[in-house]
Amino acid sequence: MRSPGTETFPRRPVITARATATFEPVGRSVASARAFVRDTLQGWGYSDIVDDAVVLTSELVTNAVVHAGTAADVLCLRTDDGVRVEVADRYPERDVPLQPNAAQAASPDREGGRGLMLCGAIAASWGVEYSPTHKQVWFELSLPERPAGTRSAGPALPTDALPVADARVRVAVVQIDRDSAVSSWNEDAEALFGHETEKVLGRPLTDFAAWPHTPGTGTGIAEALQLSRWEGSYGIRAADGRVVPVYASHLRVRDADGAPSTVCLLVRDHERAVLQTTLRAPASPDGTTPSADRQGSAADPFEVFIGSPAPDDLDGLLQRTVERARDMLDGDAAYLLLATDDETELEVRASTGLPSARQRFARVPVEAGTGRYGSARMPAVHEDLTVVPGAVPLLAGTGMRSVVTVPLKVEGRLTGSLGVAAEAPGRYSNEEALRLQFAADRIALAVERARLTELERLRRGSLSFLVEASDLLAGTLDRDQTLALMAQMTVPTLATWCAVYTVADQSTEPELSYVLHEDEDRIDGLKTLLGKVPPPDPVPTPGARVWTAPSDAAHSAALRSSLRNLGLGDDSGAAHGPGPSLATASAVGGETVVLPLVARNRVIGMLTLGKPSDEHFRQEILELAEDLSRRAALALDNARLYSERTAISQSLQRSLLPPELPDVPGVEVEVIYRAAGEGNEVGGDFYDLFPIRDGAYGFAIGDVCGTGPEAAAVTGLARHALRLLAREGFGGPAVLERLNDAILDEGARSRFLTLLYGELWPQPDGGALLKVVCAGHPQPLRLRQDGSVEPAAEPQPLLGVMEDLELYEEEVTLAPGDVLLCVTDGVTERREGTRMLGDEGLADVLRTCTGLTAGAVAARVLRAVERFAAEPASDDMAILAMRVPEPPTEPA
C-alpha cells in the first residue's frame, strides 16, 4: 500500500551506493541518526544537501523512536542525481497525517505532521509506503546543477531547448561621432531594428535607446559613449515600436584627423556571449600597448571583473573583487562592504592593503561623515581625507589619503559598497568613480547571488545547529551540565571564548558561573581576567550588545606586561596575585558581546561571547547566538526549578523520617530505606522507632498510597500521631483506630495507609516481647534459630478506608537468635517481567540468614531484591530487621 507525497509513482533513479543503520527506540537515537546521515553524505561528497537531509532525518527518526515507540531503520541511497533517504518504523498501524487540517497546520504546538511539512517544503519529492510489518517514509534531495569544469555557467541544454535565432547571428555596427550622432549604420543594424540607414544617420543614438540608464545606476548612455571602453545592456526601439534588448560593446576611437568617435557593436541580449569576452587593454597615447605588468591596472573595468568564472564561495569572490579593483585603479588598498538587511549598516567582508584581521566584519553606518560624499548610497571621491576627518571611518589610522567609493545596487536597492584608496592625495577624480561604478554594477548581481546563497546555506546550517542544541539542552535537568553545554555549543562554533553569568535574583550581583576558551590553556587566565572586571548589567533588552570591559582590561594587562618586561612597571600589584598573561590578554582583546538569558519574563543570566584581538562578529552569527540564548535560558531556568524542587522534596522527605534510631538494650535493630526515582517526589514508604516509656519502645513501618504533597501529608500525620498517641498510654489497636479517624478527617486529601505497628519490651532473660498490629501491610516474618520462617501476625484492614475499625494486637516472643523482618510492598512486589518476588520469595531469602546480625540480614535482603531484576526499582523500599542476639558463650 502506498501513500504518496508530491509524486504518486516516484521515479527510481540509478543507485550507486548505499548505507544503512538501525536505531533503538530511545531518545539518544535521534542524535545518532543525524550523525550517521551527516557522515554518510559528507563521505559521498554531497555537502551541499547535508543540512537539509539531517533536518528531515531528525524529524522522521523522532516520529519513529519517540512517537511510534519502535526501532528506526535508516537507509541512505546515493543516486545519479542526488540522494534518497528512507526511514522505516515497526508500527504500520499508526497512520501518517499527510494533509493536516487548517487548524492543525496553524498550531505550532501540535505533535504530528511537522516532519512531513518539512519534507513537503524542502525535499524534491517524498512519500510514505506501508507493509504489514513496517511503515516507511522517504524523501529525495537533488544536487544543484553544476556543469563540469565551471561553477558559474548554465546547465547543458538539449538542442530543442536552445533559444531560437536567425539563420546567422547579426552584429549591428553603429558609429557615433563626437556629437553623439549616428554616422554609420550597417545592414545587420537595419535587419535587427528595422530602421533604414538614411533615416538614422545624423540622429543621436539616445533617440533610439529605450532604456537610457543602466539599471541600478544614474549613468546614462550618453555618458557611457564618452568612455574609452564600455560594455552593458540596454534596449533599442525598433521601427515597429517594439523594444529589442541588446548587449553592447563600445570602443572610443579617433580618425586620421584626430576627431573622436565611438564604435558600438550590438547583438541580441541572449547572444551576449558573442561580445562578452575578456578585452584587450587600450592603447597608450603614443599608440603602444601597455606593458604586461600594467595591463591589470590600465585595462577597462570590465576586463577586471569578467573572464574566469566567479569562485563558488562568497568570500573568494569578494576577495578577488577587491584585489582587481585595487589593480584597476592602481590603488594601495581596496575594501568591499555588504549591507545589512535593513540597509542601515555596512559590514566589512573583504579588504586588501588594510589590516584585514582588524577590519573583518566590522560595521560602519551607511550615513557617515559630512559633505557631498557622506552617503554610501552614491559614488564618492575624497581627494584628501585629512581635510574631511572621519569621512571614511574604515580608513582611520591606515595612512590612506585619497579614496573613491561606489555603491553596489541591485534593482535600486543598496547591497554594498566598493572602495579603492591610495596613500597619496588627489589620486582619484570623477572619471575613476565612473569607471569603478560601471565595474560595481557588473559585479553587484553576482555578489548578491553569492550572498543569498551563503545566507541560505547558513540558515539551513543554523537550523541543523539549533536542532542539535535543543536536543542536548533537553537531555539534562542538571544546572551545572546545562551551563557546560551552553558554553560548549558556542565555542568554537560561534565564538573563540564564552562566559556565562547567572543572576539569582534582582537584588544580587551577577555571578561568573562558567568560562570556556577554545584553547584550554587559557581558561584559567580568562577566568582571572573576567574576575577582575565588573560583570555586565543584567539588561532584559533582546539582542546582542557590545561589552568593552574585557577588551579594555585585556589591553591594560598587555600594556602592564610590556612595561614590566622593559623594567618600567610597578610590581606593587603582584601582592594581589598574578594577573592575566599577555597571551590571555591578546586572546580576549577582540569584540565581546553580551546576550541576555531571559526566561519567564526574568533575566536569569547573561551569555558573553568573545573574539580574539581585533576580530568582529558577523550579524548572522549574532542572530544564531540570540536564538540559542533563548533556548539555553529556558533550559537553564528549567534546571534551576528542577534543582529547587528536588532540594525541597528531599528536605521534606528527610523530615518525614526519624533523624536517628535509639539504642534498644538487648535488641539489634537495622533499617534500610531506598527511595525510587530521582528524589523529586515525597511520600511513599516510611518507618519509625521511638521510646514510649521506660523499657518500652514503639516501632512502625508503613506505606501511603501514591506520592506527592497529599501522600506526604498523610505520612507526616501518621508518624507524629503514632508517637503522640503511644506516649499518651494508648495500646496498639487504640493508636491505629484513632489514626484511622484522623486520616478520614482529611476528607478528599486523605490517602489509605498500610501500617505495621508494634511495641517492643526487651526481657530480663535475654528475649523480647512484641505486640503487633498489621493493618493491611505485608506480614512480618519471624526467623527462628533452626532456620524456619513463619508469619508473625495476621493481616487486618488497612487505614483510611472505613470507619469504626476493630483491630487487635498479637503477641510475639523473640528468643535469643530470632529475627523479626518487616518490609514494605516495594520489596515483595519487585518484578522481572511476569515474575514477582512475593512473600514466598522473601521467606526463601530470610531462611538463608540464620546466624546473621540484624544489619547483615537487612543487607542480604536488599541485595537479593536488587538482583531479582535488572531494571532499577520503581517503588520505595523500607526494610526493618530486629534480632535478639545469643548470649555470649562461656569459656571452657
UniProtKB/TrEMBL annotation:
GO molecular function: phosphatase activity
Presence of keyword Hydrolase: yes
Keyword terms, alphabetized: Hydrolase
Residue ranges constituting the PAS domain according to the UniProt record: 173-203
Lineage: superkingdom: Bacteria
PROSITE patterns: PAS
Matches recorded under CDD domains: HATPase_RsbW-like, PAS
UniProt cross-references to InterPro entries, sorted A to Z: Bact_Sigma-Reg, GAF, GAF-like_dom_sf, HATPase_C_sf, HATPase_dom, PAS, PAS-like_dom_sf, PAS_4
Protein name according to UniProt: GAF domain-containing protein
Lineage: Bacteria, Bacillati, Actinomycetota, Actinomycetes, Kitasatosporales
